[in-house]
Design goal:
Length: 553
């Protein structure tokens, strides 16, 4: 594997000029982090918050309950802590008993308790009635969000959302924590707080967790935020994070985007999914090592419970869907049960889309007297557009999200209409053309899998949405080892021998039972492998290995 491959991979990412190459391969904090005041309404937001600080007004930090919203709440609360401002409250709703975003009940309580300013994080862009009530109660609301805004916006005091009409911010794809980080940057610039000029960088570990966990594109400013944030994570002194790394058996000095996306993010999310997101907030803010270790163990336990809940849902889904002939499967899968916890539905929807069915999936469960659900797209449609076409505000109690992932609520009596409405909407809306199969970036041999190859590819990291891991074709490989592992043998591990005699392993998670059932995966057989290259630090010694994308005979 040569340096020419690096040039080929850069060109495939649209990186052609020396300037583009320099920015991509060597991110610069000064050059690549944009001026926060380029965001629409930022001057107005900063002036209002500084006024609240000056007048000692009670401020409410209101965040979403996921691995984007919770780090965002920590970012803003740490700013206030740093400037010794204490007249504030952090409010994270209960995922199981409260609706997504602001509620009229919470707004009334804030006003009754003397609050004068509410700042939302990662939510609020569709909260019309709640903002209207706040205005009536003389409670100013600043919305900071990154979700797709509706055509008309709530009448908030100010809105920070790079996607809103009239906003010319260069990177439209910041996550919720990224947006509130820009607010903190702006406050530091305008306020007279005597903070060290580099203090804001101590927040980048939290920004990286949110940016990677929320799967926003790791391009442009997000690439720099994730890159520098990962460096901060590798050095973070936060007792909660260090305890979390230890509980999850992660080596802090080697943390990468996969560790954040598949280990750290899910554990932060498990608090909100299985109990209350305030537990994750406490973990990220505590300075007490013993408390941090106890909470990390608790979240590890909750994450285990989360996995079991998802497996039960998957078993039921497989039983129902396997009874339907493949040709008769609907274009949009809608499946649910009143016994399913809304906190884990998104994970089930993702598994159904990614591992087997490759079509939009809507999974629902009961939350008191309301049906709540999560949805995931296979890339063929924009989910927000699909739900709007299916009835929008006239059918759903609430809905929103991104093109690829979203959430919804409906009344129980309407759940019987959900599938029919979505299927009709799917027929009407514009489809996004998907590639029929993953196109490899290059053809390589098993001998090309080396530390030098890893060094070349590492320069392109962090990988994620918008900057996927390079995919390689390895044709005509002879299987030297083959086994399944995990719960019931759901994961696959193959081994291939290099000319030196060394064995390179290829891992496929959640692929052993169904995905390659038509290929004989036996020692001595030859296969065509499509895979990415990765380095695992799980064992005592780092292991260079392949991650299976596809196998053909």
């Amino acid at each position: 594997m040569s340096d020419d491959l690096l040039n080929q991979l850069l060109l495939a990412r649209g990186i052609e000029t020396p300037e583009q190459r320099e920015k991509f391969l060597t991110p610069s904090y000064l050059r690549d982090i944009y001026d926060a005041f380029l965001l629409k309404d930022m001057e107005k937001v900063v002036a209002r918050i500084l006024l609240a600080i000056k007048n000692s007004e009670k401020i409410i930090i209101f965040s979403d309950y996921d691995a984007d919203g919770v780090p965002g709440a920590v970012i803003l609360s740490e700013f206030f802590k740093k400037i010794n401002y204490t007249n504030l409250e952090v409010y994270i709703p209960n995922r199981h008993t409260e609706s997504y975003g602001l509620s009229e009940k919470s707004i009334q309580e804030f006003a009754d308790n003397g609050a004068k300013l509410v700042i939302t994080i990662d939510c609020g862009i569709t909260d019309f009635t709640e903002v209207k009530l706040a205005n009536k109660l003389n409670l100013d609301v600043i919305i900071t969000d990154h979700h797709l805004p509706p055509e008309t916006l709530p009448e908030a005091y100010a809105i920070i959302n790079p996607k809103q009409l009239g906003d010319t911010y260069p990177d439209k794809m910041l996550c919720g924590s990224g947006v509130i980080f820009k607010v903190v940057q702006a406050l530091i610039r305008r306020g007279e707080f005597n903070l060290d000029k580099n203090w804001e960088k101590t927040l980048l570990d939290l920004v990286a967790i949110a940016t990677i966990s929320d799967r926003v594109p790791l391009t442009d400013e997000n690439r720099a935020l994730a890159k520098f944030g990962l460096l901060m994570l590798q050095r973070s002194r936060r007792p909660g994070l260090r305890a979390l790394f230890s509980a999850a058996k992660l080596k802090q000095e080697n943390l990468n985007e996969d560790d954040v996306g598949f280990t750290i993010g899910p554990r932060i999310n498990s608090a909100g999914r299985m109990s209350h997101a305030s537990e994750a907030f406490f973990l990220l803010t505590t300075s007490n090592i013993a408390e941090a270790q106890e909470m990390a163990k608790h979240l590890e336990k909750k994450n285990g419970e989360r996995k079991k809940s998802v497996e039960k849902i998957m078993e039921t889904c497989e039983a129902r869907l396997s009874a339907i002939a493949e040709a008769d499967l609907p274009a949009v899968i809608v499946i649910g049960d009143e016994s399913w916890s809304p906190g884990v539905l998104g994970l089930g929807a993702s598994r159904l889309v990614e591992n087997k069915y490759q079509r939009p999936v809507f999974v629902w469960g009961a939350n008191g007297n309301e049906i709540k659900g999560s949805c995931r797209s296979d890339g063929s449609v924009n989910l927000v557009d699909l739900m709007r076409e299916a009835g929008g505000e006239q059918f759903f109690t609430a809905f929103g999200g991104h093109a690829m992932a979203g959430g919804f609520s409906i009344s129980p009596e309407k759940v019987g209409e959900l599938e029919e409405r979505l299927l009709k909407a799917y027929e009407k809306i514009e489809k996004i053309k998907k590639p029929e199969q993953v196109e490899p970036d290059a053809v390589i041999s098993i001998d090309d899998v080396s530390e030098y190859a890893w060094h070349l590819l590492e320069q392109l990291a962090p990988f994620g949405t918008g900057n996927p891991k390079p995919v390689f074709s390895l044709p005509n490989l002879e299987i030297a080892q083959a086994k399944t592992f995990g719960n019931g043998g759901i994961h696959l591990e193959l081994g291939f021998q290099k000319s030196s005699g060394a064995i390179i392993c290829a891992i496929g998670f959640f692929t052993a039972l169904d995905k390659f059932k038509n290929v004989k995966l036996e020692v001595g057989n030859r296969i065509n492998l499509t895979a990415t290259l990765e380095k695992s630090y799980f064992k005592r010694q780092p292991e260079l290995r392949l991650r299976i994308v596809d196998i053909t005979a």
